[in-house]
């Protein structure tokens, strides 16, 4: 499959080059040549789409989505190149045309980086989520440094008022609540790290059951990063404790689901059960602290 997909991507890249060169300087191609160029581009794109549909759904939805995204990028790149040529003056090769041509080349080259099975696809998806969550944790840790103004990098303006405006600072009670939220965010990072390692070590794409388990894990793990972001946003002053509690509960629920799905799947043999239990306890512990700190707000 990937051999044929690579071939169709390569042909599309070549057709983009031919199309761009034909319209890079006067004279314009004849009507007959234009028709031939259009047909070749259309055939290349149809071949790309056809090969994508050869990929059986049973190979895994995570893998299929990544191949679909790569295919879509190639098609959209060619559409943009065509639009750019149609709207550009004939006298010279425009900067936009050069960029659009390069965009198609880049999209076509991505085929070599695509995962070859669902285990590799899920590893790739989990690694991407882990990177985003790591950044969110570091950003919030930096903002929570004792005595630091979370809006210190924003110039004073009429809306925020002077730096003395208490709505731009955390109170001591806020900081106590937020330390438990940080515990949940760190548990999110640890959860993704451990699940990623387990999928790398034990994940298999050798049966419909294993492939489906990997997809279930990827689907729920994809919810961690947006949930971390929502919690982080609600942690900035002025803090609404109930909003923080709600977002913390959402994140805790997602983490518990990830751990539960991981525990019952083939990626978690008995050797992996220790960290699942530990992280489940860590999520409960931090969520209970958030509940205690916000109890008076209910």
From TrEMBL:
One Pfam family per UniProt: GCIP_N
Positions of the Cyclin-D1-binding protein 1-like C-terminal domain: 156-260
Residues of the Cyclin-D1-binding protein 1-like N-terminal domain: 5-144
Swiss-Prot/TrEMBL keywords: Cell cycle, Cytoplasm, Nucleus
Gene Ontology CC annotations of this record: cytoplasm; nucleus
TM region positions: none
Classification via PANTHER family: CYCLIN D1-BINDING PROTEIN 1, CYCLIN-D1-BINDING PROTEIN 1
Family statement: Belongs to the CCNDBP1 family.
Name the UniProt record assigns to this protein: CCDB1 protein
Naturally occurring in which organism (per UniProt): Motacilla alba
């Amino acid at each position: 499959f990937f051999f044929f997909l690579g071939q169709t991507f390569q042909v599309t890249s070549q057709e983009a080059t031919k199309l761009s060169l034909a319209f890079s300087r006067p004279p314009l191609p004849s009507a007959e040549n234009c028709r031939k160029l259009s047909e070749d581009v259309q055939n290349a794109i149809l071949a790309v789409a056809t090969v994508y549909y050869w990929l059986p759904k049973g190979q895994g939805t995570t893998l299929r989505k990544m191949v679909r995204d790569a295919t879509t990028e190639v098609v959209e790149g060619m559409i943009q190149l065509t639009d750019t040529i149609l709207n550009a003056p004939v006298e010279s090769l425009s900067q936009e045309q050069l960029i659009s041509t390069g965009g198609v080349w880049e999209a076509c080259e991505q085929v070599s980086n695509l995962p070859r099975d669902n285990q590799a696809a899920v590893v790739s998806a989990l690694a991407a989520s882990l990177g985003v969550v790591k950044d969110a944790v570091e950003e919030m840790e930096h903002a929570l440094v004792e005595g630091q103004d979370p809006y210190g990098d924003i110039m004073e303006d009429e809306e925020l008022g002077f730096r003395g405006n208490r709505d731009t600072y955390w109170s001591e009670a806020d900081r106590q609540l937020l330390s438990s939220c940080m515990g949940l965010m760190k548990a999110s990072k640890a959860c993704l790290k451990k699940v990623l390692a387990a999928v790398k070590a034990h994940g298999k794409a050798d049966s419909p059951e294993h492939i489906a388990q990997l997809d279930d894990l990827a689907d729920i793990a994809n919810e961690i990063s947006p949930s971390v972001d929502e919690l982080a946003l609600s942690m900035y002053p002025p803090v609404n404790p109930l909003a923080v509690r709600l977002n913390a509960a959402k994140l805790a629920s997602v983490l518990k689901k990830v751990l539960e799905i991981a525990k019952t799947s083939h990626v978690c043999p008995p050797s992996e059960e220790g960290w699942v239990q530990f992280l489940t306890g860590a999520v409960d512990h931090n969520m209970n602290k958030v509940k205690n700190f916000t109890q008076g707000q209910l």
